Amino acid sequence: MKVIEGIYLLLGSNLGDRSHNLCLAREHIEQQAGGIVRHSSIYETEAWGVLDQPLFYNQVLQIETQLGHEALLNTLLFIEKKIGKIKVGKWRERLIDIDLLYYGNRIVRTFTLTLPHPEIQNRRFTLAPLVELTPNELHPVLHQSHRKLLEITPDKLEVWVAENRKPETGDRN
Description:
By secondary structure, this protein is of the alpha+beta class. Helices cover 27% and strands 22% of the residues.
């Protein structure tokens, strides 16, 4: 197994036309941040953190860019704002959310950015699409594959491929 390669983003939306919001995000990313190399299926997921809100659509993208990690983060924040993201509280509903998960195997700890994203291993809605794209690549800090992280995550919320509308994971107990 090899350590994660490539730059990975997580898109999320649970307000309005969720599919359209993800499409807009992909278009803006290609225009302003870099090319999309590949993408996961769109997953429908229960809300994490605050449960009393609409279901999310989530998707992982692998991109290539000439931007450094801080410039990429700033570009992603600009894209969120342009699409109409308004922060209503931690873990609350949102029109669009774009998280920078990995910038190759770089480990970054700054005031504005932590890479890899510090919650990857705790979120089934992030791990399921990562497993679709990179099941055997290793998290550069935890040194475990995405497949293994999905097996052992404490998150038991339902996650399923949106077009299937059928849960892929077990119950919440």
